[in-house]
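If I may wish for something, please sit down with the protein I am sending here and say whether tokens and residues agree:
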Amino acid sequence: MKTEILRLLKEGNGYLSGQQLCDYFQVSRTAVWKVIEQLKKEGYQIEAVRHKGYRLVGSPDVLSKAEIESVVQTKWAGRQVIYYEETDSTNIRAKDAGERDGEHGALFVAERQVAGKGRRGRGWESPAGASIYMTLLLRPEFLPGKAPQLTLLTAVAVAEAIRQVTGLTSKIKWPNDVVSRGKKLCGILTEMSTEIGCINYVVIGVGINVNQETFPEEIKDKATSLKLETGGSIRRAELIAAVMERFEACYETFLKTEDLSGLRERYNRLLVNRNQEVKVLEPGNEYKAHAMGINDTGELLVRTRDGEKAVYAGEVSVRGVYGYV
């Protein structure tokens, strides 16, 4: 009921009658009043006028189950939200649900993580109040070898959602970092559970720097936030909803061919490395190459002195010749 009342308040152009809410939900006026008071405590500015009803006059950057569910407009991606004020890691929570009866498209969101991690087990700074930490649980029916492509698909969804909500044109640093002006805005971590020939579940973790104004000394030269890039605060729930919308559309495009052929051009237009000289870092080997874009399976096509080759993301990093990008 809380989510629906919040949605109705957001959609309403004027006052929402308390009696209308009572009739709609078949509850007492006291029950409606309690929900309104809960929303006020969470920071929503709700005006109550006798004989008129309730009107939402201000909606801050609240992150809660009700707030997220009230703005998500997808068919299945993120329609079920599992929210934590604090947890170890949304990827861990999603994997735990994957082992049980967690449903396809369930979204796990935390205000703060105490054990967040990035690619190759690196730690991920997860303070409260300014970022998005979320993980989407999927139960695909395609073969396990295709799952890594979902990471690149998610990068497209995030970059497009950022532009939709903020107007900022961010880029993708192959394979899965979303960047702006050479600094990292977003990291993506995909993990899965498989058996021979089938996927039990996939979890896609997304961390987005949203409203931070400062970063720790050790990462301030490599990290940025949407607020620093745009100059304004962004409501995180709105951005989460946009990412879910873009992800659902990209995922359905992916399912038509079970590869990135339908998204390849969109990805390459966003690829900051495209037509740039890069440094390819393989285990025990490092070389310079000219990046040309991705192929249909998400490998980075590069040109070296010895000819063209495809670079697989699993154990390889790509850097700019003179820095991170």
About this structure: The first strand starts at residue 45 and ends at 49.
